Task: inverse folding
């Protein structure tokens, strides 16, 4: 009998997976646990094993398709067997006919916070926190979303995104037909989609564009390529926009003497390998100091969701990691309970998994405070964006020689490291952020003592 194999749920926060490549074709024989395809979530790449053996009767999706988890992926059975009956049994064929747009771009949502978030009023089906946030940002009534594709009909982010896209396209078409575009050459702009259109008779006629103004270069603007954002790049784009739109971010900067960091790093590098400290980096030392500082400042080690602030006793440190697929943020769980050696080792292991694309998606969420280190690129100053719902993020800059006056008034040169703290001003005032940085500077400048705390 034919068997439907579904897209597995590859992590608690994963809603869909992008098929990167198929490892089988229709007609191939596959063994149980054999590799069917390689997929990409918003957080990692991985291979999907088969849960049944037999002949591949039908592949239900193409490479590049974004498949919701727990949806039929392919059908296996006896050679020549018709896959239609088993697909009809699970309702896949009917769903395809009724919803040809179901392969919508997925919008991954961050892990649910410890606090319980109640469904919106009138939303009897239930909806995810990410879906409600997106609906609020787009001005969409969550209860009016026609269909939920999550478990049990739950409305999730991709359902809201589909409604928003449909609404935007309809408005753009209406504006184009009415000739209401206010952009260059009468193009419909974002403002046209949010501003009521003027009566047709009040719309001034477009003046003809002189030939000279149109430009004499027939090759302008030259070769170009347009690539839709998808996978992790699309998720990063949406999360960054959501971060700025949903929080009151302000960045505070300072520097700290870095000679202690450099000296300690040198001693650890030359230490007995048996101690497990010879691979500790400057980044590890600063991250360790940041964890110790966050413990002392609960409002910086917190989540702000729907006007409720949740502070955490333990620090679960997220750290920005540059990977071939884009920015990922692995989480060092219980970082505040780790020794320096254990902290460094776990950071390196998580970074390696993220770069290889083999990291468990659940290890890419749940952080309560984040560090982003661009010092290795020589960046002297930058403004990190909050990883909402977190209330603070630390940017680590490069170490540079800087001039200063010693106690005798003579100009000296010393090594200093730049620090950039972005905080949500809704819960963290400027003085609170300044006190955090003061304590962080103290930890960094006395890193040997911090390592013993």
Result:
């Amino acid at each position: 009998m034919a068997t439907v194999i579904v897209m597995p749920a590859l992590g608690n926060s994963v809603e869909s997976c992008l098929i990167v490549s198929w490892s089988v074709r229709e007609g191939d024989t596959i063994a149980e646990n054999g590799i069917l395809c390689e997929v990409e979530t918003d957080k990692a790449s991985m291979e999907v094993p088969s849960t049944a053996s037999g002949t591949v009767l039908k592949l239900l999706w193409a490479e590049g398709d974004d498949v919701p988890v727990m949806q039929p992926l392919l059908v296996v059975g006896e050679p020549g067997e018709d896959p239609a009956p088993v697909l009809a049994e699970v309702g896949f064929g009917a769903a395809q006919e009724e919803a040809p747009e179901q392969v919508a771009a997925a919008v991954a949502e961050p892990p649910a916070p410890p606090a319980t978030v109640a469904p919106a009023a009138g939303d009897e089906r239930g909806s995810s926190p990410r879906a409600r946030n997106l609906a609020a940002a787009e001005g969409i009534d969550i209860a009016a979303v026609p269909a939920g594709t999550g478990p049990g009909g739950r409305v999730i982010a991709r359902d809201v995104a589909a409604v928003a896209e449909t609404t935007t396209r309809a408005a753009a078409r209406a504006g184009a037909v009415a000739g209401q575009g206010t952009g260059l050459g009468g193009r419909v702009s974002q403002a046209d989609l949010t501003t009521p259109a003027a009566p047709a008779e009040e719309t001034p006629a477009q003046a003809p564009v002189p030939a000279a103004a149109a430009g004499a270069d027939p090759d302008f603007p030259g070769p170009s390529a347009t690539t839709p954002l998808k996978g992790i790049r699309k998720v990063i784009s949406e999360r960054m926009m959501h971060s700025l739109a949903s929080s009151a971010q302000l960045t505070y900067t300072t520097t700290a003497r870095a000679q202690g960091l450099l000296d300690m790093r040198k001693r650890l590098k030359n230490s007995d390998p048996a101690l497990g400290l010879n691979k500790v980096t400057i980044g590890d030392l600063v991250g360790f100091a940041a964890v110790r500082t966050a413990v002392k400042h609960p409002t910086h080690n917190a989540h702000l969701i729907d006007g409720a602030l949740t502070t955490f006793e333990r620090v679960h440190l997220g750290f920005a990691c540059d990977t071939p697929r884009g920015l990922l943020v692995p989480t060092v769980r219980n970082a505040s309970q780790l020794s320096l050696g254990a902290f460094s080792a776990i950071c390196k292991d998580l970074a390696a998994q993220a770069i290889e694309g083999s990291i468990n998606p659940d290890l890419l969420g749940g952080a309560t405070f984040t560090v982003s280190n661009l010092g290795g690129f020589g960046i002297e100053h930058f403004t990190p964006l909050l990883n909402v719902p977190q209330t603070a993020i630390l940017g680590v800059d490069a170490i540079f020689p800087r001039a200063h006056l010693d106690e005798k008034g003579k100009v000296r040169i010393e090594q200093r490291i730049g620090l950039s703290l972005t905080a949500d001003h809704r819960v963290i005032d400027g003085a609170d952020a300044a006190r955090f940085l003061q304590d962080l500077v103290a930890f960094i400048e006395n890193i040997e003592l911090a390592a013993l705390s």
